[in-house]
# Entry
Amino acid sequence: MTEKIDGVAAVERALTIMNAFRMQDQTLSLHEIAQRTGFYKSTILRLMASLIRFGCIEQLPDASYRLGHAVMTWGSIYRNSLRLEDLVMPVLNELVDATGEGASYFRREGDVRLCLFRVDPRRSVRDHIYAGQVLPLQQGAAGRVLVDYEGERSGWPDSRVIVTIGEREPDIAAIAAPVFGTDQRVIGAVAISGPSIRFTDEVLPDYSSAVLKAAIHLTQRLGGDAQWLRDGLHPKSQA
# Structure
C-alpha cells in the first residue's frame, strides 16, 4: 500500500514540474522550477531524470530546461482525437442550465461571424439564432469579442467579458467571452443572448461569471492558456 501511495505522489510531482511551464516560457532554470513548484531542487533533479529519459523534458547546454518532444506528440494525438462539437455542446448546455438564456459558439469568417453551435433556451421568448447563421462582425457581444481580442494582449480590452444591449437588435442583449487556442490567439467566442429585459443589473454578474467559466473551460479543453481569463475583471457594457 505504501508503494502505491509513493508512486502516485511521484507522478503528481512530475506532472507538477511539467505544469510549471507556461505559454510564454521558452525555457526554465532549475531555480525557476523550484520557485513555481515549491519543490526542493534535489527532488526536481531526481524526477527530471525520468522526465528526460521519456522525452517529456529536455535539458539544454546552458542547464536550463524546456518541454520535450513527447509533449508535442501527445498534443498531436489529442488534437487528432478532438471533435469540436463534443467539446462545445456540453458547455453550451451548461450555460443554458445556468442562465436560462440561449447559448452560442461563434467563429470569425473574414468580415462576418459564423454561429457554429447553438443551444436554445427552454423559453418561448428568446433570441432566434441557429447553427450556420452568419451575423455581423461589428455588432453584438460575440462579434466584438472576435475583433477586440485579436493582436497583441496590450491592445485587448481590460474586461474578459463583453456585454452589449440593444446593439445587434433593439430588444436583444448578449454577453460573450473569448476562447483562446494553443498560440493564445482568439479562436472563437462563447456567448449567451436573449431579451434585454431579462439582462438586469441583478443578474448580469451571475450571467457574466457563467460565460467566463465557459470560456475558461473551452480554452483549457482546446489547449489554450486560460490564466488571463481566470484573472478576469468586471464586464463592460456597451448599450
Q: What stands out?
A: The longest strand covers residues 186-195. The helical segments are 2-19, 30-37, 41-53, 69-81, 84-99, 141-148, 204-221, 227-230.
